Amino acid sequence: KCCVCREDLHGNAVNIPSKDRDFLLFSRNIWISEDARCCSDHLIGSQLTKEAVDAIISFAIRHQELKSSGVQLLLNKSQNLFENEQRRFYFNDPRGLTDDEYCLLTSLSKDDFNSLIEIISTSGIRNSPDRSIRTAIGIYLCKLRLGLSNRLLACMFQLPENRTISKTIDSVRQAILKKFVPYNWGFGHVTCQDVIDHHKTTIARGLTCNGGGSNTTIVVIDSTYIYIQVRNNLLYF
Fold first, then answer.
1. Quick check: 81 pLDDT over 80?
2. What angle do CA 55, 58, 59 make, to 5 degrees?
3. Mean pLDDT of all residues in 17-34
4. Per the confidence metrics, is the pTM higher than 0.70?
5. Which of 22, 126, 34 shows the shortest CA–CA distance to 75?
6. To bridge 90 with a disulfide, which of 61, 96, 131, 132 should be the other Cys (CB 3.0-4.6 Å)?
7. How far separated are the first and last CA of the chain, in Å rounded?
8. Bridging pattern class, strands 14-15 and 43-44
């Protein structure tokens, strides 16, 4: 049975992630064995949802003998969990921030942020010793949303130096250009028929096509003037 909903396993059953087992042990005093499984719809990415964590309850008291190495491992895990809990802006744990906080920091909802993570993760961007993929994208979106300096972002996300922020932003920018922009921006991401079927209003058809022309694509392109300083000596051009 599923250790979350206590129903028969359905879909692609998966093992409970080790990070979630550690979290439940130290925060709820609930021990979950390594072979415990749950339904796949209880997870977001590779972690249990907040609702799934809240639904797990203890149903028996178990005595477990541990060797000294096992005790040391538990102490190390508890220390890491404590350090992560001290980070206010922590994107690695999908449960670490509320949906309102995601919108405030990144302008995306939590679900949209998780969807973006799944897309960008296929671009080849990797975790590094200083930050995870989730943290990297969080930093990039905070930069766009809030316009903060690299020094302040390094302080917020507890990164060692400003150069780390610069490298992180550049890595995410390249990943977004590779996997997100081509499919969501510009003329190449949508076909003519998609525009006709999904992006053409009745008012636009009536104004520009005299009520007909249902198979005609309507594109309105606007531009603006950008002030650019140039040399007074035009011989340079």
1. no
2. 120
3. 79
4. no
5. 22
6. 96
7. 75
8. unpaired
| pLDDT at 224 (0 to 100) | 66
How many CB atoms sit inside 10 A of residue 78's CB? 13
Tokens of 87: 């980070």
- 64 by Cβ neighbours in 10 Å (0-12 / 13-18 / 19+) ranks as exposed
Question: Please, what's the largest Cα pairwise distance for the chain?
Answer: 86
User: To 10 degrees, what angle do helices 99-106 and 133-146 make?
Assistant: 60
- Token pair listed for 59: 């149903």
Looking at per-residue pLDDT, the higher value among 119 and 28 belongs to 119
Averaged confidence pLDDT in the chain:
79
Whether pLDDT at 231 is above 60? no
The reported pLDDT for the residue numbered 236 is 43
CA dihedral 189, 102, 45, 186 (to 10 degrees): 10
